[in-house]
Amino acid sequence: MEKLRIVFMGTPEFAVAILDTILKHNYDVVGVITAADKPAGRGQKIKHSAVKEYALEKNLNLLQPTNLKDEKFLLDLKNLDANLQVVVAFRMLPEAVWNMPKLGTFNLHASLLPNYRGAAPINWAIIYGETKTGVTSFFIDEKIDTGAMILSEEIEITPSENAGELHDKLMILGSSAVVKTLSLIESGKVTTTIQNDTSEIKTAYKLNKENCKIDWTKKGKEIHNLIRGLSPYPCAWTYFIDGKNEWNVKIFDARFVEEKHDCISGTVVSTKKDLKVAVLDGFIEVDALQFPGKKKMSTLQLLNGIQFTAVAQVK
Q1: Residue 177 in contact with residue 153, Cβ under 8 Å?
Q2: Beta strands in 144-295 (DSSP E)
Q3: Confidence of residue 153 (pLDDT cuts 50, 70, 90)
Q4: Which of 171, 192, 297, 307 is the most exposed place for a label (fewest CB within 10 A)?
């Protein structure tokens, strides 16, 4: 059994929970690599990554390279003398980095590979209406999320669950999967499975303004899946039009009610208490939304201050 000397690479909160679990299981983390500081928000104040905040709190050896091929960084990394690297929600690594440690570099990905390789696996699993997902650990190779798989852990996606809720469940599951992977590697009992590529593999594309926009010509279940798959961030959005007024509106929470009607898709039907949008096979009942310059609010809160006309629509 070889004692592990681990370099951990990650950036967001998801990675923090897993790093914390590694330390609580008494593994030796000799260094942490995270994103460089960058300005954020209206004041453009310098923002630290969640992993950096945690590393500073725990007095861990921290590196923040802007260029992963930089010779000084590669030398600093080599001098940490790690025999294993663990990557969670970081960025694509050059071969000079992932091929450095004796025992390799493994990544934890928040999907059941080979499905949902890419930047947003949690979101797309919900958007595509999956009823289960999970996490997979695999050894990194030269492509994105294609390496030999070590282990997978599976979890159910409930019909009303949003991306934020699923993220938190996968964070716990991922922590367990990483510790199991470390144990296999440490004991020399690790075996791997090659990923089989087929034309049916689904991809977790990077989210952008275009693929977050709601298409009201689709069926209600598909629209509902998009809304919950993008909530609470980055959020599904639509143009809300009432007479001469047009707003770019985010929809955080909604329900789909299957119902026959004579309304044109995209028609807004509102009362003093609720707001719903007609779709092909029913209505999307909106529960929480955000108008420009306003905070997120419940539909009831919105309708206390504004009433829409009979010609209001979304597109």
Answers
A1: yes
A2: 149-156, 203-204, 236-242, 245-258, 268-270, 275-279, 282-290
A3: very high
A4: 307
pLDDT digits (tens, 9 = 90+) for 233-266: 999 999 999 999 999 999 999 999 999 999 999 9
For the chain, domains (ranges, CATH) are 5-187 (3.40.50.170), 220-314 (3.10.25.10)
Helix (H) or strand (E) holding 86: strand 84-88
Residue type, 167: H
Place of tokens 């010779």: 71
The 3-class SS string of 34-52 reads CCCCEEECCCCEEECCHHH
**Inter-CA distances, 61 with 17, 52, 54, 55, 260, Å:** 18, 10, 11, 7, 61
Report the candidate in 195, 93, 50 with the shortest Cα–Cα distance to residue 136.
Answer: 195
Select from 278, 284, 275 the least CA-distant residue to 307: 275
State yes or no: pLDDT of 44 exceeds 70. Answer: no
CA atoms of 181 and 159, how far apart (whole Å): 30
Q: Enter the tokens of residue 280.
A: 């092909």
Query: DSSP secondary structure string, 254-305?
Result: EEEEE----PPTTBEEE-SS-EEEEETTEEEEEEEEE-TTS--EEHHHHHHH
Cα–Cα distance measured from residue 217 to residue 211, given in angstroms and rounded to the nearest whole number: 15
